[in-house]
Write a structure and sequence with these properties.
The complex is a heterotrimer of chains A (287), B (254) and C (261). Chain A has 287 residues and is mainly α. Chain A has 11 helices and no strands. Chain B is globular. Chain B folds into 2 domains: 169 residues, P-loop containing nucleotide triphosphate hydrolases (Rossmann fold, 3-Layer(aba) Sandwich), CATH 3.40.50.300; 80 residues, no CATH class. Chain B is 33% helix and 25% strand. By secondary structure, chain C is mainly alpha-helical. The longest helix of chain C has 39 residues. The chains are: A mainly alpha (287), B alpha/beta (254), C mainly alpha (261). At the A-C interface, helix 2, helix 3, helix 4, helix 5 and helix 6 of A face helix 1, helix 2, helix 3, helix 5 and helix 6 of C.
């Protein structure tokens, strides 16, 4: 490298030590680094301050490994028949289906008013704020809160799960609506179509596939939620059997059997949902 | 001097469905070669067979005196530093700066440790700036690549390839995603690289007129076979029809 | 095009709607769900919620202990998510098309991720409860395992979407595997991965409430306790403090996302 050449390249920045910089620091890097550092420190602090209650870690891990081994290598039923187990899975799926469909119908209307290109700014933000609040409350708390009025049972569970489904679906649906080409809406408006015409002839038809995929995705989640509600809120179904097997009968083999059953159903739904997503939702992320 | 010698190579993913069949080609140092042909003719596959990004099914490739097929992983890496590659979609790390992307071209010369810690010599950084200057990109050196236009990105790609000090540049549809004026800038740069720096360029193109304007030699590929191998001036209507098949009418306009 | 299909398929739409109604009725009878009853209870429920939405001074006395459990829950969610994120990164590198080492490990990592993801967090919590007891670690591991499964899939998708081009370019220039990972994959994917991690921290605060109810730990246990004692003022206090924390974290995540993505 000759000095003559250097003369032509004066545009690099140098560090204090006189070296050429290749990294630059902007707001982006600072925020990224700060987030990293914060999460790292919080993680370390968290581990240091947890109340471990003097647990013997090695012993507990060994026990868990043994338990998991029993569960997965010797699954068995003792408190119900295979038919009954399937019936309980059916109840859980039923909870998922009902809360998803009811949630989807209500969400569809709310999402029309939450989409910025179809609604006024005030109405849209009002819905978004309510939705954010609903989403922030854990589903199990919604279920338990509704249970105070409705009593523990499928009604409280379905209302609670529906609430959370609405919070999720309104966001997904309204974002799908917002992606519609503004030109299409403009053309219809210019042609004298009213709001309902636009919704039924342009908005819904052109987003049907994406709406269906999101709905199925939510159903997939709701199945897992229904399992949890069975265990945590006494909603019945396979989740309740899981709770009984582990907390009351201490029957590891049955826990294993139930876990396998849930796993198979969940993976089947997941495969179905990825197929749907591949076909209808290419290019949309789900965050 | 023959830099690259490709002898009877074939590539098939499934039996009886060859992507490339029995291709032979000798390339001189400093030569500018265009490969044209309809999409699906195997142009991209052929280019990637040369630096073994794709392994061939049979045949031999000699590059700069070494038998490419006989190389182990380590030596293959070493030999790849002598072959620069330029891509249709630029393949830059879009969140990093231009200068960081250019210096990626030096990774092949570094140990894993040096590379991961970005221990580049001052000399290498100077060379990177020098190349950017030559390509008219020095003022953008500290910009993130996702802020650049397509033509600018491709120039970063060229700088990244050149900093490898390559003897051969493989360019896979370098102007397919660019507008005409950016395309001209890129092709002019590539031509200059081959004539002034004596670096061999093999360029996949789908514009016959561009190929005729810039190349020393044109290779026509159809369904994995070489159907034309000769000077640009001899590439006439009949030959073009042979390369592109019956649907070549629109290409004759030029 | 879709509009055309939609119109010509009116018959299909009718069949679809009928099917939907049948499925709903079947589910309702299966789960002993009563539509009329639930609609009737809604006004009651909302009246209850509104009349209990105010925090009394009496309940506020419990605030310090609520905060205590809430902070534990937040830390539980952060530690489980960050550690799961780091572990998921390694499996995702093996599982992604762009960075896989070989087909066998790629397949294996996807299968492992799928199994972890689809075993509900409830099952993990109950299994771990047997040997870890009512301990913070029960919640930690339950959240860790479920988050791990989720993040592996999310990270694999991120790597596949963003890095295949630059990976190819660096391979062609003779870079080693670790150079490619550190210089191309990580810089390209880190912001998106960070975004997923922040999303999971927020989700895990809600999940850890659930796990807490089941395993008798953290804020979930506290909620359950006062709920069963019908001390609804404290229940409201706990619920609202969870809401504030979750929304707070969401706001911070949204800011970070806006800047880094």
């Amino acid at each position: 490298m000759t000095i003559a050449k250097d003369h032509h390249v004066p545009r690099f920045k140098q560090t204090n030590a006189g070296k050429i910089k290749i990294k630059t620091w902007g707001k982006r890097q600072v925020v990224m680094f700060t987030t990293f550092l914060a999460l790292f420190l919080l993680t370390v602090y968290g581990f240091l301050t947890f109340d471990y209650k003097g647990i013997s870690f090695v012993q507990a891990v060994t026990d868990t490994i043994y338990n998991v081994k029993v569960m997965f290598f010797q699954p068995a039923m003792s408190h119900f028949t295979f038919g009954e187990a399937l019936g309980q899975v059916g109840v859980t799926i039923g909870l998922g289906i009902l809360s998803t469909i009811i949630g989807a119908i209500i969400s569809l209307f709310l999402a029309l008013f939450a989409a910025k290109n179809l609604s006024s700014k005030t109405v849209s933000s009002a819905i978004i704020i309510v939705i954010t609040f609903i989403r922030a409350v854990p589903t199990v708390l919604w279920v338990l809160i509704f249970a105070i009025a409705a009593g523990l049972g499928s009604e409280a569970v379905i209302i609670g799960m529906t609430f959370h489904s609405i919070a999720f679906l309104v966001k997904a649906y309204s974002e799908a609506f917002e992606e519609i080409d503004e030109g299409v809406l403009e053309a219809l408006r210019a042609g004298g179509a009213n709001w309902w015409h636009i919704v039924t002839h342009a908005v819904i038809p052109s987003t049907t596939s994406s709406l269906l995929s999101w709905t199925f995705l939510r159903f997939e989640t709701n199945f897992t939620v229904a399992v949890a509600m069975g265990a945590a809120a006494g909603a019945g179904g396979i989740g309740f059997e899981l709770l009984m097997a582990s907390n009351f009968y201490f029957d590891l083999r049955e826990v294993g059997f139930i876990t396998y059953l849930i796993l198979i159903v969940a993976i089947a739904f997941e495969l179905l949902s990825t197929q749907l997503k591949k076909r209808f939702l290419s290019g949309t992320s789900m965050s | 001097m023959v830099l690259l010698q490709v002898d009877h190579i074939s590539k098939h993913y499934e039996k009886d469905k060859p992507v490339l069949s029995d291709i032979s080609l000798h390339v001189q140092q400093g030569e500018f070669i265009s490969i044209i042909g309809p999409s699906g003719a195997g142009k991209s596959t052929f280019l990637r067979c040369i630096n073994r990004m794709i392994d061939i099914s049979s045949g031999e490739i000699h590059f700069d005196g070494t038998n490419m097929m006989a190389l182990n992983k380590r030596n293959l890496r070493k030999n790849r530093t002598k072959i620069g590659m330029i891509f249709q979609h630029y393949n830059l790390v879009s969140r990093l700066t231009v200068i960081e992307n250019v210096l990626h071209g030096r990774l092949g010369y570094k140990s894993t440790f040096q590379g991961v810690l970005s221990l580049f010599k001052e000399e290498e950084k100077r060379e990177a700036f020098h190349l950017l200057e030559k390509l008219g990109m020095a003022e953008h050196a500290y910009k993130r690549c996702d802020q650049l236009s397509g033509g600018q990105k491709q120039r970063v790609g060229i700088a990244r390839a050149l900093i490898q000090s390559p003897k051969l540049l493989l360019c896979d549809e370098p102007i397919a995603s660019l507008d005409p004026s950016s395309s001209k800038i890129i092709m002019d740069h590539l031509k200059e690289i081959s004539t002034e720096m004596n670096i061999t360029c093999i360029v996949n193109l789908h514009q016959v007129d561009v190929a005729k304007k810039y190349s020393d030699r044109i290779i026509g590929l159809n369904a994995g076979e070489i159907v034309y191998n000769g000077a640009p001036k001899d590439l006439l209507e009949r030959e073009i029809r042979e390369i592109y098949g019956a649907n070549a009418a629109h290409l004759m306009m030029k | 095009m879709i509009t055309g299909e939609y119109r010509s398929n009116k018959k299909q739409l009718t069949i679809f709607l009928l099917l939907l109604i049948v499925v709903m009725l079947a589910s309702a009878s299966f789960t002993e769900f009563n539509f009329i009853y639930s609609i009737q209870t809604l006004p009651k429920a909302f009246t209850w919620i509104i009349s209990n939405l105010f925090i009394t001074e009496q309940a506020l006395e419990k605030l310090p202990s609520v905060m205590d459990k809430l902070i534990e829950t937040v830390f539980l969610s952060i530690t489980s998510t960050t550690t799961a994120g780091v572990s998921a990164l390694f499996l995702a590198l093996l599982g992604s098309e762009a960075t896989k080492v070989n087909d066998f490990f790629a397949k294996l990592s996807r299968v492992i991720a799928s199994v972890y993801r689809n075993i509900p967090i409830v099952a993990w919590a109950l299994i771990l409860l047997l040997s870890f007891g009512q301990n913070a670690l029960t919640g930690y591991f339950a959240l860790f395992l479920a988050t791990f499964g989720f993040l592996v899939r999310a990270f694999i998708e991120t790597i596949d979407e963003t890095s295949s081009g630059s990976v190819e370019a660096l391979q062609a220039s003779g870079a080693t595997y670790f150079q490619i990972v550190m210089k191309a994959v990580i810089p390209e994917c880190l912001p998106q991965m960070m975004s997923w991690i922040l999303y999971m921290i927020e989700t895990n605060i809600r999940s850890s409430t659930l796990v807490g109810i089941l395993t008798g730990t953290g804020i979930g246990f506290m909620f359950d306790l006062y709920y069963k004692n019908m001390n609804y003022e404290v229940v409201t206090l706990i619920t609202l403090s969870i809401v504030i924390v979750v929304i707070g974290i969401e706001l911070i995540s949204n800011y970070v996302r806006r800047v880094i993505l």
